[in-house]
Amino acid sequence: MGQLRFTQRAARHSAAHGRLLLPEPEDGRSRSTQQAVLAYTDDDTFKPVPGFKVVTGHFHTDYNELLRDRETLDYQPGWVPVFRGLGINVVYLGDFHDDSDPNDAGLRRFEEEKIYFEGSRRMSDKDF
Question: What's the pTM?
Fold first, then answer.
């Protein structure tokens, strides 16, 4: 098989980090290697099952900061189309326990939660 090197490629299923390390042979057979790996993952997608939703979660995306830094609740992070493209319908985020102002138990934290949940509502629909 020759020497293996690890390269980064956009990983549709590693949305939080945006990369996956896959071994690629240096002899130019990388496409066949990727296809062999994807054979074990249903081509990196979840097949729909009638009556069920695909759920994944606990991704740390710092979503609240993304919204606040851009000063808009309508920002769509790059991981949204990644999850949708995978066939995922429900994502529960692992944010908001270590970001923004976690030590504030008052009005400031409440205002941050309002931004977080309103932004989440705006990027959601009946299928996501």
Answer: 0.63
